[in-house]
Amino acid sequence: MEIPVLIKEAKQGSAAAQKCIFDQLAGKMLMVCRRYVKNQEDAEELLLDGFYKFFKGLPAFNYQGEAALYTWLKRIMINECLMFLRKKQTFVIVSETVAEAIPLEEEALNNLSATDIFNLIVQLPAGYRTVFNLHAIEGMNHGEIASLLDISEGTSKSQLSKARSLLQKMLLQKNITYVKRSTQ
Amino acid sequence: MSNEAHNKDWVSRLDGLDHTAGEAGLDKSAAWDRLHTRMQSKQGKSKTGWYWAAAACLLAGCLIPALLAYKQKYSGVHISPAVAYQHLDTPATLVISQKEAPVNVLKEKNKPVAAQQVLAAIMPALIHPINTTNITATLKKDTLQITDTMLAAVPATAAPKKIRVVHINELGEATVNEVVYPEYKPFTIRVNSPAGLGDQTIANNTLNIHLSPKN
Fold this sequence. Notes:
The complex is a heterodimer.
Chain A: H1 3-11, H2 15-36, H3 40-57, H4 66-88, H5 107-110, H6 114-122, H7 126-137, H8 142-149, H9 153-173
Helix pairs in contact in A: 1-2, 2-3, 2-4, 3-4, 7-9, 8-9
Chain B: H1 9-15, H2 28-78, H3 81-86, E1 95-97, H4 113-127, E2 143-145, H5 150-153, E3 165-168, E4 176-179, E5 187-189, E6 200-202, E7 209-211
Antiparallel strand pairs in B: 1-2, 3-4, 5-6, 6-7
C-alpha cells in the first residue's frame, strides 16, 4: 500500500495502516535516535515516544509528499532526543574558545560506508555529537543550534570545531585515506 | 536551515541507514506492540480522566444544594432574632398613606422628607396605641415604602416634649414666648427687650405670673 493511502487511513485511526507506516519508517528513525542517544534501549524508548506523538498529531498533518512526512517525523524524533539529553544534562560545555584547528576533511567521509560514519559519530561525546548532528547532518546554523540547546553561538561553534577535530583524529587513527578536492 | 551546500553524499547515505551491520535490528513487531499498548492505555487514561471529572461535577452539583439547605435550616439557631431580622432578603415593608398623615407631626427641617414621614407615621404608634387610620397596609400610588427595619427606626425617634407657652401681652410692645419647664420652679427668666422688661418670677406651675418691672 502506498504512503498517501496509509496516511489517510492512519488519520482515520486504522491500526493496520499505522503499523504499516511504523514498519516502513521505524528502522530509519531508530538510527536517527541512536545518532543522538548512544544507548540502544533509550533510543528505542524515544522512538516509541516519537511515533506516539506522530500518530497523535497525524490528523492535523497535511500530507504534502513523502519527503515532507519523513522530515516531519525526523524532526519529532530529534526533538524527543534533545529533550532526553536536556533531562540527562549530558551536554558538556567545555569552553567557548575555538579548539585546536584540525579541520575535518568531510570528503573523507564520502569514502566511508554509512555504517562506518555512524560508528564514528556515536563515538563522539554527547555535546560534540549533538552539535555535529545538528549542523553537519541536519544543516542547522549556529544560531538555530544555540537557541535549540540553550547555549551561545560561540559554544556551538566551539563544540562543532572540537567534534570535527576529534573525527579527523579518528579517521587518521584508522588510516582512512581520502582524495583531496583539487583547488584551483 | 543554513544556506550552506548540503548535498553531501555521506549525509544522504547516513539518513538512509536502516540498521548497522553486525547489530541486531529493531524487532518491529515487538516495538509496535509496545507502541500500540501505550497508545491504547493513554487513550484509556484520558477517558478515565473525563469520567472522574464528570463524577466530580455531579457530586458537586448534588452536595452544594444540600449544604445550602442545611445551612439555611440551622442558621436561625445561632443567630439572634435582631440580626436575623436585619438579614432578611426582603426588607420589612411598611406602607404609609401620605394623604392620611397624622396631625401631631414633628416637623424637623434638617431631616429628609422620607425620614420625617416615617417618623411621623411610626411615633404615634410607638407612644400611643396603634392608630390604624394613619398606617394602612394598602399599596397606593402615592405611598412610601420603608426599607429600614424597626430596630433602626426606633432609636431615631425622640419623645415629644410637653411644652407650655406663656404669652405676655400686657406690655403691649413686646410679645415674649418662653418655654417653661414646670419641674423647675420657681425660677427667674431674664429678658432683655427694647422695652426694658425686667425680671419675671414664676412662683409655681399654676401660671400665676407676677411681673415686676424694675423701673
